[in-house]
């Protein structure tokens, strides 16, 4: 079974134990950026994948959601940032991190009333300096955003924090979905549950290893993985995903509403 997952810092507590268990579990682990994982699941190249939550909603019930693990946050997260050189009402162009889709939808939900109708959107590489050089604003996700110090005068909005302020709900950035070829009795749920719990017990070591690899402060990584990211898909995550679904439907970002299928 081909399982797709991104390899950003926030996924390491899931990815590290999954790689360790892959052979025994009959999994082939495929890493890619979130937007590409969604495309590869849709094409049938992957059987199961951790994909942007908005792509699960856009699929309109085509996928089964496997509530064994997710990437979620409740309040400031530090890795989903909208930043601008001018007030949002004056923004004429926005550079969008090409790796993300859920964050783009979230930006529309949160700031539709602040952005001009004619604002131009451009996909871009995750380089905040280049984004600001060529555009009024940028939307950046993942590792390049963590601990980023914006230039003087640049306004920064943490989209997870803004979502929580608006809804008081957890925001679910990515969910695990099974394609149509996966049999309903496949043991993937148990494999993912066990991997998640193993990873949560090893967060201290994973944070230290990642910090050593990147040459950065371990405390930044530990705080992020232990206190900013949520990995279990529970009642609060379900509530947040349903609220996101309803708002996406209201703003015509998804074609139709449907009950979450597990």
C-alpha termini separation: 18 Å
Uncertain stretches of 5 or more adjacent residues: none
Q: Identify the overall geometry.
A: globular
Strand content: 15-25%
Number of helices in the DSSP assignment? 10
- According to CATH, the fold-level topology of the largest domain is D-Maltodextrin-Binding Protein, domain 2
The helix-strand sequence is EHEHEHEEEHEHEEHEHHHH
CATH first level of the largest domain: Alpha Beta
Sheet with the most strands, sense and barrel status: 5 strands, mixed
| Proportion in helices | 40-55%
Q: Which CATH architecture of the largest domain would you pick?
A: 3-Layer(aba) Sandwich
| CATH homologous superfamily identity of the largest domain | Periplasmic binding protein-like II
Quaternary assembly: single chain
Average pLDDT score:
94
SSE class = alpha/beta
| Total beta strand runs | 10
**Major beta sheet, strand line-up:** 2-1-3-10-4
What Rg do the Cα atoms give?
A: 18 Å
The number of domains: 2
Features of the shown structure:
262 residues, five-stranded mixed β-sheet, 21% strand, alpha/beta, D-Maltodextrin-Binding Protein, domain 2, 10 helices
